[in-house]
Design a protein that fits this description.
It contains eight helices and five strands; from the N terminus they run ααββααβαββααα. It has 242 residues and is of the alpha+beta class. It folds into two domains: 167 residues, GAF domain (Beta-Lactamase, 2-Layer Sandwich); 59 residues, Arc Repressor Mutant, subunit A.
Length: 242
């Protein structure tokens, strides 16, 4: 992707884009809105009439968080369907990937043929930093044949940094919430099991260990979770389901 001269008229467009990103308040925007802004500004400042998207790879499944146009979204989906392509490679390996010319690419020929037919001449994907087992990439689909020079690559690295912050924060937040919910569930389970043990100890004069073993035995015999056995017993006094 050839890039305009740093001192040329497009330099002001580039600076304006980064000024706009710098004014974004991450606390006042959703993940999707911030990433969409990044992809739209990526399309504005890079050459080749590009369309941009952000791919997230989590648990072996890829998805597109945001895109600046249908072409990027559709070509992302084609790579997911094929299980191969620059965006998946960048997200999985942490290294930039590209197709210099979709009409002659040999690394991903099936995807390249689809991209060329759709009007994409070249593609460049830059990885996002890995957070909480979530990786990703900022993808740029150029509609005019270009060659990525160092300035274009540097701009893409800077734009990727803006995309990485909200994506990382969102998944870090989701992971924290999941851990908190798991901890609360564990505490709730322990509380009701202890309550059931106490009832058994009082009713049948059992030791704490014997009461727990009784709950465990019913759980195994009825193929019921220990917590569910305890909940039913506390509520009804019955060990076994009807």
């Amino acid at each position: 992707m050839t890039s305009p001269d740093a001192d040329g008229p497009d330099a002001a467009v580039v600076q304006s884009a980064f000024d706009e990103l710098g004014r974004l308040n991450f606390a006042e925007h959703s993940l999707e809105s911030i990433v969409r802004t990044v992809t739209e500004l990526t399309a504005r400042v890079l050459p080749g009439e590009p369309i941009a998207s952000v791919t997230i790879l989590r648990g072996g499944r890829a998805s597109t968080v945001a895109s600046s146009g249908d072409l990027a979204f559709e070509l992302d989906q084609e790579q997911y369907r094929l299980g191969a392509g620059p965006c998946l490679s960048a997200a999985a390996t942490g290294r930039p990937s590209e197709i210099a010319d979709t009409r002659s690419d040999q690394q991903w020929p099936d995807f390249a043929a689809v991209a060329a037919e759709a009007g994409c001449d070249s593609m460049l994907s830059h990885p996002l930093p890995v957070r909480e087992q979530v990786s990703g990439a900022l993808n740029v689909y150029a509609r005019q044949l270009t060659t990525a020079d160092q300035r274009t690559r540097d701009l893409l690295v800077r734009l990727t940094a803006y995309a990485a912050v909200p994506v990382s924060n969102m998944y870090l937040y989701e992971a924290a919430v999941a851990r908190a919910e798991h901890l609360q569930s564990a505490l709730d389970s322990r509380a009701v099991i202890d309550q059931a043990k106490g009832i058994l100890m009082e009713r049948f004069r059992l030791t704490p260990d014997a009461a727990f073993q009784a709950l465990t035995r019913v759980s195994m015999e009825t193929n019921t979770k220990l917590r569910d056995v305890a909940v039913r017993f506390v509520a009804s006094g019955e060990f076994r389901p009807d």
